[in-house]
Structure formats: C-alpha cells, structure tokens
C-alpha cells in the first residue's frame, strides 16, 4: 500500500506520508490518497480513520457499481469508475472510492489511476479551490474524470468514421465484426455515463445549498452532452450496418452484371458453333477451312457488337460517374 497525505489551505500545500498533529488538521483541509491497499491495510484504515463498515465492505469486495451513500449528516461514500481502453475490444473499469467528510477527503484506488498528478494540475489551474471547502476538491476530481470520458468518445468517433469508410468501399467480414464490437462498447459506455450522471445529479439536487456545487453544474451539462453524442454514434453504427448491406448488394449486382454480359455474348456464339457443326474442326490441317467460316465470323462479330451496344445503352458497361454540378457551377 502507498499512502500520500495532503494538507492545504489558501496559504500552502503540505505533502506528507503520514497524518500530522491536530493543530495542522484544524487549520487545513485534508486529502488522503491510498493506492492498492490489502485487506489488512483496509482494516487499519477503517480503525485509524473511523471509516464506515459498509463502505469498508464495498472496498474489500472491489465493488464496481457506481453509488453514492450518505453515511451521516456530514460524511458520504461514493464509488465512481475510471474508464480506459486497453485495446479497442477491451474497456477496463477501475473503481475509485471516495470518502468525503468535514474538511477531509479519502480516495482509495488502483495505482493504474494517477490521481495525485490530476489533483496537482487541478490545484495549479484553479487556485481558488485552496480557499474553499474539501467539497470543491472532490467536485473537481469528478470533473476531471468526466473529461477523461470525453477522450473515450473521441476514440469511438474516429473508429466509427474508419469503419463507416470501410463498410462503403471495402465491405468484409472484418468490418461486420468491428461494427458488433463498436455497438457493444457504445452500449457499455452509455450505461457507465448514466451511472456517472446519477451521481452528479444526486449532488446537484441534495447539495444545492453549498457554494462549491458550482463546480458540478457545468459537469452535469457535459455528461448529458456525452450521452447525447454516444446515442448519435449508436445511430451512426446502425446506419453503417445498412450501408454495409447496401455495399454487399452492390458488389453482388456488379458480379451478376459481369456474368450476364459474358453469358449473353458467349452462349449465342457457342450455339452457332454447334449449329454449323464446327466441333469437328481439323486441327491437323488448318488450311482446310470450313465453307461457312467467313459467314460465321461476320455473324459472331455482329452479335458481339449488338450485345455491347445494348449493354452500353442500358449503362451496364462503359458507364462513368457524371460530375454533379451545383447551380453555382452551372452559372
């Protein structure tokens, strides 16, 4: 286990490895960040920090169900998820446990999440947090987590565009697999976003009298926008499935068109060859040409030319995409 202790007020920030005396506690806000505690460490934390038993049980179970619980009038226990893609097929969910009390914030999580760097950046960018209650720091951490969610959507968005292009120009089984993976990841992300919105909504409604709640007002709007965006991506994925089916149908039509043209030209010629009994053509004496060879060649050439003209008129062959002119171009 690795534990880092921060004391801060509007004048200073003190970083230590253990808690200090009560004199500092009375004049500073306290943030304790704990990485990867064992069961024994959790028991010791519960004793030294007077943590709630139900909250401790959730931490021991490594619960990943986002929740906010009111422990008493001043203390809350919150579980929020940090999300990241290890690869596109695997979305990793890392639980963050918050214990928020009067002038005290305790965070417990995996070392895969660098919360200390996040908080240092937050305090650098928003120095006014140092002058306010511990709730402001907690709300700002939530805001930072939601910003990370936006990066996940960016990855989804880029992948949707790539798969959409492949579905149109290079439809294959791999594209269909990607579409299934995208759809599954979008559904999972949307559920996690809903859970995060529920937690933010709880704070906004239950703690609306707090001055520091302003840090969550914008975050609530952002998470709603993320949910709307991910819903639009789901619609795009569904449209891409239809585009994929249309592209496959178009490829089949092109294939059938080629086979039809080939058959329409070759089959009549084969029939004429059979009618004029040229199956027994003597390959040992090429100078002994059949009597109707000239007529046959003319008929074959005529059928071929007439077939090509007919296919050309129908636009099956020798057709090119015409440039679409706008009214401005015509003017």
UniProtKB/TrEMBL annotation:
<feature type="transmembrane region" description="Helical">
    <location>
        <begin position="290"/>
        <end position="312"/>
    </location>
</feature>
<keyword id="KW-0812">Transmembrane</keyword>
<dbReference type="GO" id="GO:0015087">
    <property type="term" value="F:cobalt ion transmembrane transporter activity"/>
</dbReference>
<dbReference type="GO" id="GO:0000287">
    <property type="term" value="F:magnesium ion binding"/>
</dbReference>
<dbReference type="Pfam" id="PF01544">
    <property type="entry name" value="CorA"/>
</dbReference>
<dbReference type="GO" id="GO:0050897">
    <property type="term" value="F:cobalt ion binding"/>
</dbReference>
<dbReference type="GO" id="GO:0005886">
    <property type="term" value="C:plasma membrane"/>
</dbReference>
<protein>
    <submittedName>
        <fullName>Magnesium transport protein CorA</fullName>
    </submittedName>
</protein>
<dbReference type="GO" id="GO:0015095">
    <property type="term" value="F:magnesium ion transmembrane transporter activity"/>
</dbReference>
<keyword id="KW-0472">Membrane</keyword>
<dbReference type="InterPro" id="IPR045861">
    <property type="entry name" value="CorA_cytoplasmic_dom"/>
</dbReference>
<dbReference type="InterPro" id="IPR002523">
    <property type="entry name" value="MgTranspt_CorA/ZnTranspt_ZntB"/>
</dbReference>
<keyword id="KW-1133">Transmembrane helix</keyword>
<keyword id="KW-0813">Transport</keyword>
<feature type="transmembrane region" description="Helical">
    <location>
        <begin position="258"/>
        <end position="278"/>
    </location>
</feature>
<keyword id="KW-1003">Cell membrane</keyword>
<comment type="similarity">
    <text>Belongs to the CorA metal ion transporter (MIT) (TC 1.A.35) family.</text>
</comment>
<dbReference type="InterPro" id="IPR045863">
    <property type="entry name" value="CorA_TM1_TM2"/>
</dbReference>
């Amino acid at each position: 286990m690795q534990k880092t202790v921060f004391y801060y007020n509007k004048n200073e920030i003190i970083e230590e490895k253990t808690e200090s005396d009560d004199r500092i506690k009375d004049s500073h806000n306290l943030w304790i960040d704990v990485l990867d505690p064992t069961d024994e460490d959790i028991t010791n934390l519960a004793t030294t920090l007077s943590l709630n038993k139900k909250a401790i049980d959730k931490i021991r179970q490594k619960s990943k169900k986002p929740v906010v619980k009111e422990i008493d009038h001043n203390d809350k226990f919150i579980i929020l998820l940090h999300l990241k893609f290890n690869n596109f097929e695997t979305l990793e969910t890392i639980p963050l446990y918050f214990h928020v009390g009067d002038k005290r914030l305790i965070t417990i999580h995996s070392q895969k999440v660098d919360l200390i760097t996040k908080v240092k950046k937050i305090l650098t960018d928003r120095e006014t947090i140092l002058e306010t209650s511990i709730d402001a720091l907690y709300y700002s951490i939530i805001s930072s987590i939601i910003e990370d969610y936006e990066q996940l959507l960016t990855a989804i968005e880029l992948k949707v565009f790539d798969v959409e292009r492949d579905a149109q120009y290079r439809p294959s089984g791999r594209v269909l697999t990607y579409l299934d993976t995208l759809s599954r990841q979008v559904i999972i992300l949307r559920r996690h976003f809903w859970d995060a919105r529920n937690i933010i909504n709880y704070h906004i409604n239950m703690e609306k009298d707090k001055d520091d709640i302003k840090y969550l007002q914008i975050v609530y709007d952002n998470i709603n926008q993320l949910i709307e965006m991910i819903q639009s991506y789901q619609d795009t994925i569904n449209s891409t499935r239809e585009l994929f089916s249309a592209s496959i149908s178009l490829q089949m039509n092109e294939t059938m068109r080629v086979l039809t043209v080939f058959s329409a030209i070759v089959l009549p010629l084969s029939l004429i060859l059979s009618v004029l009994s040229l199956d027994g053509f003597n390959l040992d004496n090429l100078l002994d040409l059949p009597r109707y060879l000239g007529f046959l060649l003319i008929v074959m050439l005529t059928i071929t030319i007439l077939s090509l003209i007919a296919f050309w008129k129908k636009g099956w062959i020798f057709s090119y995409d015409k440039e679409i002119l706008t009214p401005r171009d015509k003017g």
